[in-house]
Structure formats: structure tokens, C-alpha cells
Amino acid sequence: MSAGAAEMDTAGLRLKDLVATQALAQRLAPLLRRGDVLALGGDLGAGKTTFAQFLLQALGVEGDITSPTFTLVQVYETARFPVYHFDWYRLKAPQEVEEIGFDEACAEGVAVVEWPEKAAAYLPRDSLSLRFFLDQDGAHRVRIEATGQWVHRLEEMPNADGS
Ligand SMILES: Nc1ncnc2c1ncn2[C@@H]1O[C@H](COP(=O)(O)OP(=O)(O)OP(=O)(O)O)[C@@H](O)[C@H]1O
Ligand SMILES: [Mg+2]
């Protein structure tokens, strides 16, 4: 992630179409390991579920990947770890994340969380935050906010051209 990193800090990375979102998911997928939490934050309709779907596909999940809007969580087996796809939008209270198995998900696999803002206090400190938003022109964008271990781990991310 060398080139473009500085730009991403300010305006975010432009995801000009679904292919661009898929490409980002494909670059991030190989870096993931058990215990990781990806917080997919940001505006309504900004592209969180879309990114999660491409990420699961990149991890080898075949078939339908439905939004966990109503179920709050969907679990997928992959070759490397289970992935727990959460949507916290409909949580009635932040502590409900305990009832839907967030701790177990973090222990057993990778947790991908839409609407992390709804229970932010439950996110581990070393979550990777991807904040999706629409810019003034209606273009989809994402700002990747890496702290702690993720600063170094993202350096392992392949460049957009695959190098
Ligand atoms: N990079 C992109 N380029 C063009 N359209 C996109 C892109 N990413 C997502 N979309 C489209 O935007 C719409 C909303 O996407 P999505 O459902 O992923 O958003 P969301 O952030 O999960 O929304 P919600 O807040 O309801 O959970 C969908 O029609 C999707 O196809
Ligand atoms: Mg969604």
C-alpha cells in the first residue's frame, strides 16, 4: 500500500465502481487472520455490505452472501477461519453484542462488523476501521484507518497492480 497511502489519509480511496471495491477486498483478504476485527463504518448505503460480500468471496465463500440486516450475524466457513458478518444497525442496546456472540466470533474467527458505531465500546482497540462514505459527487469512497498492529500489517498488502 505504498503509493496512494498519503492520498487515502485525506480524501479516502475512491471506489469508482464495484470492481474497485472488489479489488480492495481481494487485496485485504490474504492479510486476515483469526482474531481480526474489521469495522466497516460509515454512511447509509455507502458500500459496507458490498465490500463484505466481496471479501467473503475473496476468502472462497461460494453462493449467496446475504446482508445480516435482520439476523444481526451470518457465519461463513472458509478454508482458514470462520467469518462472522455482523450488522449492528438494529441493535437495541450496545450490550446486545454479547448475546449475538461477538466475543466468541473474535476468539474463533474473523469478525466483519457493519455499523460498528452502534456499539463502539465493544470493538477491540486493534480493529481495522474502514469508513465508507459518498462524496459530494455521489462517488463511493473509503478511508482506511489503521492503528497499532495494522499500520505494519497493511504494509504487506499487495499494491493495486498486484505487485
Ligand atoms: N464502489 C461502488 N461503486 C458503485 N456502486 C456501489 C459501490 N459500492 C456499493 N455500491 C452500491 O451502493 C448501494 C449500497 O451498497 P451497500 O448495500 O453495500 O451499502 P451499505 O453501506 O451496506 O448500506 P447500509 O447502510 O444500508 O448497510 C448498492 O446498490 C451497491 O451496489
Ligand atoms: Mg449494509
Write the layout of secondary structure elements.
Elements (H helix, E strand, L loop, with lengths): L4 H6 L2 E3 L2 H11 L8 E6 L5 H11 L14 E4 L6 E5 L8 H4 L2 H7 L1 E5 L13 E7 L5 E6 L3 H5 L10
Parallel strand pairs: 2-5, 2-6, 4-5
Antiparallel strand pairs: 1-7, 3-4, 6-7
Helix pairs in contact: 2-3
Bound molecules: adenosine-5'-triphosphate and magnesium ion.
Describe the structure.
This protein is globular. It has one domain (5-156): Rossmann fold (3-Layer(aba) Sandwich), CATH 3.40.50. 27% of the residues lie in helices and 22% in strands. It has a seven-stranded mixed beta sheet. With 163 residues, the chain is an alpha/beta fold. 35% of the residues are buried. It has helices at 5-10, 18-28, 48-58, 96-99, 102-108, 149-153, and strands at 13-15, 37-42, 73-76, 83-87, 110-114, 128-134, 140-145.
